[in-house]
Protein backbone atom coordinates (compact mmCIF):
# COMPACT_ATOMS: atom_id res chain seq x y z
CA UNK A 1 0.00 0.00 0.00
CA UNK A 2 1.36 3.41 -1.00
CA UNK A 3 2.09 5.88 1.76
CA UNK A 4 0.70 9.38 1.40
CA UNK A 5 2.64 11.87 -0.68
CA UNK A 6 4.11 14.50 1.63
CA UNK A 7 4.69 17.89 0.05
CA UNK A 8 5.51 21.52 0.76
CA UNK A 9 6.15 24.45 -1.56
CA UNK A 10 7.37 28.01 -1.37
CA UNK A 11 7.78 30.96 -3.71
CA UNK A 12 11.28 32.42 -3.73
CA UNK A 13 12.17 35.88 -5.03
CA UNK A 14 15.29 34.66 -6.83
CA UNK A 15 15.95 33.23 -10.29
CA UNK A 16 15.82 29.46 -10.84
CA UNK A 17 19.59 29.44 -11.43
CA UNK A 18 20.25 30.83 -7.94
CA UNK A 19 17.83 28.43 -6.22
CA UNK A 20 19.38 25.49 -8.11
CA UNK A 21 22.85 26.59 -7.02
CA UNK A 22 21.67 26.42 -3.40
CA UNK A 23 19.80 23.09 -3.46
CA UNK A 24 22.17 21.16 -5.72
CA UNK A 25 25.05 21.56 -3.25
CA UNK A 26 24.02 18.56 -1.16
CA UNK A 27 26.84 19.16 1.32
CA UNK A 28 24.71 22.08 2.53
CA UNK A 29 21.64 19.91 3.27
CA UNK A 30 22.27 20.16 7.05
CA UNK A 31 21.81 23.95 6.77
CA UNK A 32 18.27 23.44 5.48
CA UNK A 33 16.90 20.18 6.90
CA UNK A 34 16.03 19.95 10.60
CA UNK A 35 16.87 16.20 10.59
CA UNK A 36 19.87 15.90 8.27
CA UNK A 37 23.19 16.45 10.05
CA UNK A 38 25.46 15.48 7.15
CA UNK A 39 25.09 14.37 3.53
CA UNK A 40 28.14 13.03 1.73
CA UNK A 41 28.02 12.52 -2.04
CA UNK A 42 30.35 9.69 -3.03
CA UNK A 43 32.42 9.92 -6.21
CA UNK A 44 32.54 13.65 -6.87
CA UNK A 45 29.86 16.08 -8.04
CA UNK A 46 26.25 14.91 -7.76
CA UNK A 47 24.68 13.32 -10.84
CA UNK A 48 22.16 10.60 -11.64
CA UNK A 49 23.42 7.40 -10.03
CA UNK A 50 25.54 9.12 -7.38
CA UNK A 51 25.33 7.51 -3.97
CA UNK A 52 25.15 9.41 -0.70
CA UNK A 53 25.73 8.63 2.94
CA UNK A 54 23.48 10.63 5.26
CA UNK A 55 23.51 11.16 9.00
CA UNK A 56 20.21 12.13 10.60
CA UNK A 57 19.21 13.27 14.05
CA UNK A 58 15.93 13.81 15.87
CA UNK A 59 16.37 14.80 19.50
CA UNK A 60 18.54 12.08 21.04
CA UNK A 61 17.94 9.68 18.15
CA UNK A 62 20.65 9.36 15.53
CA UNK A 63 20.60 7.16 12.42
CA UNK A 64 22.53 6.81 9.18
CA UNK A 65 20.93 6.24 5.78
CA UNK A 66 22.17 5.83 2.24
CA UNK A 67 20.59 7.04 -0.97
CA UNK A 68 21.03 7.17 -4.72
CA UNK A 69 20.31 10.22 -6.88
CA UNK A 70 17.56 9.24 -9.32
CA UNK A 71 17.09 12.57 -11.10
CA UNK A 72 19.47 15.48 -11.57
CA UNK A 73 18.16 17.93 -14.15
CA UNK A 74 19.89 21.30 -13.65
CA UNK A 75 17.50 24.12 -12.75
CA UNK A 76 14.52 21.70 -12.87
CA UNK A 77 14.64 18.70 -10.54
CA UNK A 78 16.77 16.87 -8.01
CA UNK A 79 15.57 13.55 -6.54
CA UNK A 80 17.07 10.76 -4.47
CA UNK A 81 15.81 7.38 -3.21
CA UNK A 82 16.56 6.44 0.39
CA UNK A 83 17.65 2.80 0.33
CA UNK A 84 16.56 1.94 3.87
CA UNK A 85 12.88 2.82 3.46
CA UNK A 86 12.32 3.14 -0.29
CA UNK A 87 11.08 6.73 -0.19
CA UNK A 88 11.99 9.23 -2.89
CA UNK A 89 12.66 12.83 -1.90
CA UNK A 90 12.58 15.46 -4.63
CA UNK A 91 13.00 19.17 -5.19
CA UNK A 92 11.32 20.64 -8.26
CA UNK A 93 11.93 24.19 -9.47
CA UNK A 94 9.50 26.15 -11.60
CA UNK A 95 10.04 29.70 -12.87
CA UNK A 96 7.44 32.26 -11.78
CA UNK A 97 6.90 35.94 -12.59
CA UNK A 98 8.78 36.89 -9.42
CA UNK A 99 11.40 34.14 -9.26
CA UNK A 100 11.02 30.45 -8.47
CA UNK A 101 8.48 28.08 -6.98
CA UNK A 102 10.29 25.30 -5.11
CA UNK A 103 8.37 22.12 -4.28
CA UNK A 104 9.73 19.46 -1.92
CA UNK A 105 8.04 16.05 -2.06
CA UNK A 106 8.40 12.72 -0.34
CA UNK A 107 6.96 9.88 -2.42
CA UNK A 108 6.54 6.34 -1.15
CA UNK A 109 4.88 4.93 -4.24
CA UNK A 110 5.34 1.31 -3.21
CA UNK A 111 4.82 2.08 0.47
CA UNK A 112 7.49 2.46 3.09
CA UNK A 113 9.46 -0.71 3.80
CA UNK A 114 7.88 -2.71 6.68
CA UNK A 115 11.00 -2.52 8.85
CA UNK A 116 10.97 1.27 8.57
CA UNK A 117 7.29 1.38 9.57
CA UNK A 118 7.98 -0.86 12.59
CA UNK A 119 10.91 1.30 13.72
CA UNK A 120 8.92 4.52 13.23
CA UNK A 121 6.06 3.11 15.32
CA UNK A 122 8.43 1.85 18.02
CA UNK A 123 10.81 4.79 18.33
CA UNK A 124 9.39 7.89 16.62
CA UNK A 125 5.86 8.22 17.93
CA UNK A 126 4.08 6.41 15.10
CA UNK A 127 3.90 6.90 11.35
CA UNK A 128 1.13 9.52 11.32
CA UNK A 129 2.84 11.72 13.90
CA UNK A 130 6.24 11.30 12.23
CA UNK A 131 4.82 12.20 8.81
CA UNK A 132 3.32 15.42 10.26
CA UNK A 133 6.76 16.17 11.68
CA UNK A 134 8.32 15.53 8.26
CA UNK A 135 5.97 18.04 6.58
CA UNK A 136 6.80 20.61 9.27
CA UNK A 137 10.49 19.92 8.56
CA UNK A 138 9.92 20.32 4.81
CA UNK A 139 8.39 23.75 5.42
CA UNK A 140 11.37 24.70 7.61
CA UNK A 141 13.75 23.43 4.93
CA UNK A 142 12.10 25.49 2.19
CA UNK A 143 12.01 28.63 4.36
CA UNK A 144 15.76 28.28 5.04
CA UNK A 145 16.52 27.75 1.34
CA UNK A 146 14.40 30.81 0.51
CA UNK A 147 16.29 32.96 3.04
CA UNK A 148 19.66 32.03 1.53
CA UNK A 149 18.57 32.28 -2.12
CA UNK A 150 17.02 35.72 -1.60
CA UNK A 151 20.19 37.16 0.02
UniProtKB/TrEMBL annotation:
Alphabetical list of CDD domains matching this protein: SRPBCC
InterPro entries for the chain: Polyketide_cyclase/dehydratase (IPR019587), START-like_dom_sf (IPR023393)
One matching Pfam family: Polyketide_cyc2
SUPFAM superfamilies in the cross-refs: Bet v1-like (SSF55961)
Name of the protein: Polyketide cyclase
Species of provenance: Mycolicibacterium pulveris
Species classification: Bacteria, Bacillati, Actinomycetota, Actinomycetes, Mycobacteriales
Amino acid sequence: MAAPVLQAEIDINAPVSKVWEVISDLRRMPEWSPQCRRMIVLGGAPRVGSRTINFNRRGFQFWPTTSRITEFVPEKKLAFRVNENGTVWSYELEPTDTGTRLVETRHAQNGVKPISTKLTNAFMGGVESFERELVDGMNQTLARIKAVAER
